[in-house]
Each structure stands twice: as structure tokens, then as C-alpha cells.
Amino acid sequence: MCHEKCLDCFARWKLWIRPFFIGAYALAALVLVPLFLIKSLQDGFNRHDLEVLIAGVFVGVAIPISLWEIIQHVIHYTQPKLQKYIIRILWMVPIYALNAWLGLTYPSASVYVDSARECYEAYVIYNFMKYLLNYLNMEMDLEASLECKPQVKHIFPMCCLPDWEMGRPFVHICKHGILQYTVMRPLTTAISFICKIFHVYGDGEFKGNVAFPYLILINNVSQSTAMYCLIMFYKASKAELQPMKPLPKFLCIKAVVFFSFFQGVIIAFFVFTGAISTSEPNTDGVSLATRLQDFLICIEMCMAAIAHHYSFSYLPYVRPGTRPQTCCSAFMAMWDISDVGRDVQEHLGIVTSSISRRLRGRSMYTIPRGNDEYQNLVSPRGGQSVPPDFYQSYDEVVVNYGTVNPNQPVKTHSVETRMKPV
């Protein structure tokens, strides 16, 4: 009898999951805050403790707002093709806020938590790109639609670059311009760890004999390239994205990822030049820059949580009468990162192939549609079997350009839609 009641209780998880999290969070706040204050008063309440307390208040507000939105998306998981990436984006605020607060509380461990935050920002840009591509491919043949549009010109200061051919080449350049940051950011983070081990990193030092300024330059170029490709993609598909109100979403991603990075660089530069200093003993410039960056991020994440609440709302996915996926399937889909591995592997393969073709004097996009080398960018290979986990849901749209046969006409722009069986 007790076993049946437990099963029935778990089956009704939607009724108690929200009050459970609210109660657990309130209980944790009522216990942890007094403990922190008691310990700080015993040790002597100093300026660092005040910073940790103020930052903790903002983090304590930001995390529940984001978790609430994530839980609502899990409950109303009616569009897995889109909500999977929205949930990953929403996790950015809790991860950023908690990482910054831990780095502020435990300065000796800040290098590790900050690195985790830096890698996740590249992951966020990747997920936002996938979110936009999936939204457009559910509504239309994206590449065919872009082919019919007028040429999108580069914006300042990239006006001197040659135009990106509309259609398939445009989508490829934008996608791989964003994917390169997903690869480059973890790579530079790993290099920074190695440089720190050999004491040649020079954190916060803009000198020629340390690795810090060079890695900052590489990250800056890589991130700027990704953001520029994202802006160009938005410029080309602005009309098609209008129903989902893309501008607030773009601003949220750009503000959190782009400005937080340059904020850290500017703070490090001002501390290095002496424009920002401290009279506290045993506090060097690197520690001061890290503290300022973590403190500001804790405050900024509170504002970002509110912006994400309205920009990535769950309300458009509330569909009465529609049976969403189960909690377990939604949770597993949220943490399944196999799509990232496939896209990164594809990105590396295409970049290698592109370099090889350019060395041989051939353009990257001279291959007709249907060639296996580039087919996976939008759809599975035409006419071939695909792995069982290729589709994240039954709502996926498959754009199949067919195969190229010299004795048959080339098939273009045929769309197949896998519908969930009733």
C-alpha cells in the first residue's frame, strides 16, 4: 500500500515539484545566511565578507528565477526541438552566478571556477545558434529561402570582406564561424592551465614574455568572429525570425557573453596600469581584478535572470491538451550533448576539407547538393540510414536534397517531415 502511494506521488510530480523547490530554497537561505554571518562576526567582519554577502544576495535572487523558468520548460516540454536549447541557455545564469560567487568566496579556487564559466559561454553561443537553425528549419527550407533573398552586405568594419553567397554557403559560414568558438575557447582554457603550471601565464599582465595577452587576443578574435556571424545570420533571417521576437534574445546572449568577457579584459587592463588599485594588504593586482569581475558578474546575473525570464519564456510552449514528454525524458534530453560532439566533429572535418580544397585551388562550395561530405549540416544523408539517436524528437524536420546521379536530374529542396504518430 505504501509502495503504491509513493508511486502515485511521483506520478504527480508536477503538483509538488515547484513548492518543493521553493521550500527547499527558503530553508537553505534561512540556515546558510545566519551561519555565514555568525562565522564572519567571529573572524572579524571585513570588506571581503561584505562583498561576499552583497554578491550572495544578488545570486540568491538570480538562481531561483532561472530555476523556476527551467522547471516550467521541463513541465511544458512540448517542443523538444527548441526547448532543449532554451533550457541549456537558461542554465547560463545559475552557472555564471554560482561560479562567480564561489570565486569571490574562495579566491584561491577562482582560476578553476572561472575557467568552467568561460567554457560554458562558448557552449551557450552554440546552443543559441542551434535554437535559431531548428526554429527556421521547422518552418521552411532555410537554404532555399536565403537563396531567393537579396545579397546581405557586411557591416562596419567588415565592409571590405567579399559577400557571402546567399543560401547554402551563407548558412555554412555562419554556422562554422560560431562553432569555431565552441572549439577554441576550451582549447585556450586548457593552454592557460598548462601555462600556469609552468609559471608562464602571467594572469593580468600585458607583457610580451607571458601567455596572457596572446590568449586574450585569440579569445577576443574567436569570440568576435562568432558574434559577427550570429549578427549576420540575424540580419539575413530577421523577417523569418520575427514571430519568435528575436531581438531580446539576441541582446540577452550578446550582453551576457560578449560584455562579460570584455568587462574582465578592461578591469585587468585598468588594474595593470594602476588606474584601479586597493590599499588592502596582501592583495595583488590579479586578485583585485578577479574579485571585481566576480562581484560585478554576481550583480549582473540578477538582471540577466530577469531578462531571460521574459525573453525565453515558457508560455509559448504551454499547450493545453498536448501530452508533453515525461520528466525523465526531458531531463535526459537536456543533458544529452551528443549533438555537440557530432557538430564539432563535422566542423573539424569540413574545415580540414576546406583547407585542402583551397590548397588545390578549388572552392569549398563547388560540390553540388547531396554530397555526403556536407549533407549533415542541415539533414541526414539522403538515401542512407542514420543512427537511432540522430533525431532528438519526432518534431524534427529533415531537409533532403537527394543524391547526385549523372543520368538523373538533380533533386532540390524537397522537404520531409517526421510527424509523431497519433
TrEMBL record:
Record-linked SMART domains: Solute_trans_a
Membrane topology recorded in Swiss-Prot or TrEMBL: Multi-pass membrane protein
UniProt organism field: Ceutorhynchus assimilis (cabbage seed weevil)
Location in the cell: Membrane
Protein name: Transmembrane protein 184C
Spans through the membrane: 20-38, 50-68, 89-106, 211-234, 255-276
GO cellular component, one term: membrane
Main location (coarse class): membrane
InterPro entries reported for this sequence: Ostalpha/TMEM184C (IPR005178)
Any coiled-coil regions, as ranges: none
Keyword terms of this UniProt record: Membrane, Transmembrane, Transmembrane helix
